[in-house]
Structures are given as C-alpha cells and as structure tokens.
Specification:
Elements: E1 2-7, H1 10-19, E2 27-32, E3 42-43, H2 51-61, E4 65-68, H3 71-75, H4 78-84, E5 89-90, H5 98-101, H6 103-113, E6 120-123, H7 126-133, E7 140-144, E8 153-156, H8 159-171, E9 182-186, E10 191-200, E11 204-206, E12 211-212, E13 215-217, E14 221-224, E15 229-232, H9 239-259, E16 265-275, E17 278-285, H10 292-296, H11 304-313, E18 328-334, E19 358-362, E20 365-368, E21 371-374, E22 378-385, H12 389-400, H13 416-420
Parallel strand pairs: 1-2, 1-4, 2-3, 4-5
Antiparallel strand pairs: 6-9, 7-8, 7-9, 10-11, 10-16, 12-15, 13-14, 15-18, 16-17, 18-22, 19-22, 20-21
Helix pairs in contact: 7-8
The chain binds adenosine monophosphate and glycine.
The site of glycine has 7 residues, from loops.
C-alpha cells in the first residue's frame, strides 16, 4: 500500500511513524515533510496547501490513501478534490471542515443542535460589535471567525481591550479575511482537555483523552503558542465525563452534520473546557491536534491504517480501539525567541543518543548535509511512555537533557496537572 501524508510538523512525523508500523505499507511519502520525517518517508517538495499539485502527485504515484495533517488544505476542499478524482483520502469535506474554518458556522451549528458551548454573538461589522460590548461582564473573548493559525482568539479584560481587539481584527485586519466576521463570547473557566474522535459520517470512536499546554511558560504563563507539550490520557476526563462528552458533544455533531448534508469523516477534535456546569466546547478542529497526536498515537495499539480506511469506507462501527495503558508525555523544544520572531539554522546535537524508550518527533527541522538543523519555532517533540505519569514525565525530560541546540527552551511542567491529581 502507498500512503501520502500531507504536512510538515511534529504531528505529521507521528502520523508517519505510526503508519509505518503497518507491514502492508510499502511506500510512504510526505509533502513537504521535515528533517525527521525524511528518515521514515520520502519527502516531496509540494506545499501542504497546494491541493492540485498534491492530487497530481497522488495520481502519478498511484497513492492508495492520503492523510492530511493541517487544517488549511481541508478547509480548501482537498478531500472533495481527491474524491472527484477517484483518490482515497482520510479527512472531512470542505463543507464538514467549516466546523474549524468558520467559528460563526461552528457556534451557530452548536446552537442549532443544543451542544454546550459559551454564550455568544456573531458580527459582520465592527460598529455592531463595539455596540454590543457595553453591558457585558468581563473577561470577554473576541475571536476572528476564520483560520488564524491558532492566534485568532483574544481574551479581553475590559471594554477598552475588547474595542481594541475588534479594531485589530476588523479594522487593521491583522488576521486578514479571517477577521471578516467575529464571534464574541462568554469567558469560561475550568480545566481544558482535547477530545478526538475518528468519524465515518455516521458513527464515531473516541480516542483516549489528552491535554495540550498552550502557553509558552510554566504554570500557563505568557503568550499562547501552537502547543508546548501534551500528555495522554488526562485524568480530568474520567470515564463518566467521557460518556457525557460523547453523548452531549461528539454524537450530536456527527448526527447534526449528517442531517445537514455535510457528514463528518476524519478526525473531529473538540477542545473542551470542563466547567462546573459540565464540559463546554471552546473550539472544533477537523484534524489531529499538534502536539496531542504525538502523545496519543504511541498509545494506540489498534492498527492505525485500518482505522483510517474504516473511516473512509464508513465502517467505523465494526471496529473497537485498543490502548496501551501506559501514559505518554510529549515535551516540545522550541527555538530561541519563539513564539515571537525566532532564529533558525541551528545545529541540533544528541539526537543519536536516545534510549529505546524515547521517541523524538521532529517539528521544525531540516537536513543539512549530515546534520539536522532547526527550521521552525517548535523544533522537536520529545516523547516517552512510562509506567505511570510520573515515570513518563521523567523519561521525557531525561531524553531532553541529551539534546541541545542554541537558544533551545521548553516548559518544565508538562504533565504536572495530571501528577497533581
Ligand atoms: P481556540 O482557538 O478557540 O481553542 O482558543 C484558543 C484558546 O483560547 C483555548 O484553548 C482557550 O485556552 C482560550 N479560549 C478560547 N475561548 C475561550 C472561552 N470562551 N473562555 C475561556 N478561554 C477561551
Ligand atoms: N493543539 C491544538 C491544535 O492542534 O490546534
């Protein structure tokens, strides 16, 4: 079987690593890939959002299954294009990808189907949005509706900050056309968790839970990032809560999308806040999370390729998932300056000293001759399974201690919340 993975981050390295475990996979390609992926797959110089070139490539190589990492090609309709051309692809259609591509769509959809989420209002012009701000309690959350690479959410402590946020998004267009529409919503408090489900349009299977660490510094301080680490499972999602999330969030999404003639296939990712009133949706993604995937896939015992094929073919209900009971922790090593401007091209040492237990997923690296150098903000996801969460944390950090590059920094508290429970 020939498989093409689309994307270039730590998530895609983890996808390639897992796919490679299926002995039927004879050829694996990744577009565009990175320095670590190159040791598992043939990297192809096509950008992840060049969906026409990707389809051409899939035809040329006779690809049997394409797996899409990032959201942009999904929102652009890569799945529809591949299907029209008779190519098998794992993921949601353009219509189903609106759950991530349009927060206005997602919020209105949740309202239509009674899915718990923060109270909100949507706006198409700045004047109406500003007028709405008076008579609301703060903090208030202002969100650009479209895709903004995880940066489109501004938490505002007072009316002045909220006006400023609206001006930046709608006036200055800091997120470009993603800011043509706005969502303003109630601020929720609680602990966050990521719940991923594999869907086939009619049915779904929940993956084990995980938790991201979005802020740059320990104890959730400092600016937001693409994710500085993750672990799975997360004890905040008890079995009882899993059932509530399946019944009140995931199932209504799958049934609602089918009813609205946009059946959801692929990975449905619900970012939920576990509030005192129960779990509420913060956002939907229509793809694997990064870095959650790096902490989830090492625990999955079920064949991953079979699982994705079952989604494509509408046969999810005939499968069940098996998990390694051991928890998994992924700690992201970032480049100096990240999440602001960062430097690249720094040589990475120590990658050859990994003990058998640790897995190093590359996020922003490339091969330069015989060395691996940094090429992105998030550089590596150093990942380990352990006999208990404490052991997994210890293993991941002792692996990190062997790796070095100039300017490297990482959080020291990944998984600590699980430990505190
Ligand atoms: P999103 O891209 O919608 O997940 O937002 C990014 C992050 O902003 C989330 O992971 C939360 O930490 C935070 N956030 C988003 N919406 C809310 C909300 N309504 N209340 C509190 N925090 C939020
Ligand atoms: N970990 C957050 C995301 O993938 O969007």
């Amino acid at each position: 079987m020939k498989i093409l993975v689309v994307g270039s981050g730590g998530r895609e390295h983890a996808l390639c690593w897992k796919i490679k475990q299926n002995p039927k996979v004879t050829e694996l390609y990744c577009a565009p890939g990175n320095g670590g992926i190159a040791s598992l797959a043939e990297c192809v110089d096509i950008k992840a959002d060049d969906i026409i070139a990707l389809a051409d490539f899939a035809h040329e190589k006779g690809i049997d299954l394409t797996v899409v990492g990032p959201e942009v090609p999904l929102v652009k309709g890569i799945v529809d294009l591949f299907k029209e051309e008779g190519l098998k692809i794992f993921g949601p259609s353009e219509a189903a990808a609106r759950l991530e591509g349009s927060k206005v769509f997602a919020k209105n959809f949740m309202k239509r189907w009674g899915i718990p989420t923060a109270k909100y209002a949507t706006f198409m012009d700045a004047k109406a949005a500003v007028a709405y701000l008076a008579n609301h309690s703060y903090p208030l959350v202002v969100k650009a509706s479209g895709l903004a690479a995880g940066k489109g959410v501004i938490i505002c402590q007072n009316q002045f900050e909220a006006e400023e946020a609206i001006q930046k998004i709608m006036g200055e267009k800091i997120f470009k056309e993603a800011g043509n529409n706005l969502v303003i919503e109630e601020f929720l408090t609680g602990e966050e968790a990521s719940i991923l489900a594999v869907c086939d349009g009619q049915s779904f299977l929940l993956l084990d839970s995980s938790q991201d660490h979005k802020r740059i510094f320990d104890d959730d301080k400092g600016p937001n990032t693409g994710g500085m680490g993750a672990y799975s499972p997360t004890p905040v999602v008890t079995d009882a809560l899993r059932k509530v999330i399946a019944d009140t969030i995931i199932r209504p999404v799958v049934e609602g999308m089918a009813d609205e003639e946009a059946p959801f296939k692929g990975i449905l990712y619900a970012g939920v806040m576990i509030t005192r009133d129960g779990p509420k949706v913060l956002e939907f993604n229509v793809r694997f999370g990064d870095p959650e995937t790096q902490a989830i896939l090492p625990r999955l015992k079920t064949d991953f390729v079979e699982l994705m094929l079952a989604s494509v073919e509408g046969k999810i209900s005939s499968l069940s998932l098996e998990w390694d009971e051991r928890p998994c922790v992924c700690v992201v090593m970032a480049a100096g300056g990240y999440p602001g401007d960062y430097v690249t091209g720094k040589a990475i040492s120590g990658l050859d000293q990994m003990s058998t237990g640790a897995i190093v997923f590359h996020a922003g690296t490339k091969k330069q001759g015989d060395t691996i150098v940094t090429s992105g903000g998030r550089v590596l996801g150093v990942t380990a399974l352990g006999n208990g969460i404490e052991d997994a944390i210890t293993q991941a950090y002792s692996a990190i201690a062997k790796i070095a590059f100039e300017g490297a920094h990482y959080r020291k508290d990944i998984g600590k919340r699980a430990l505190n429970r």
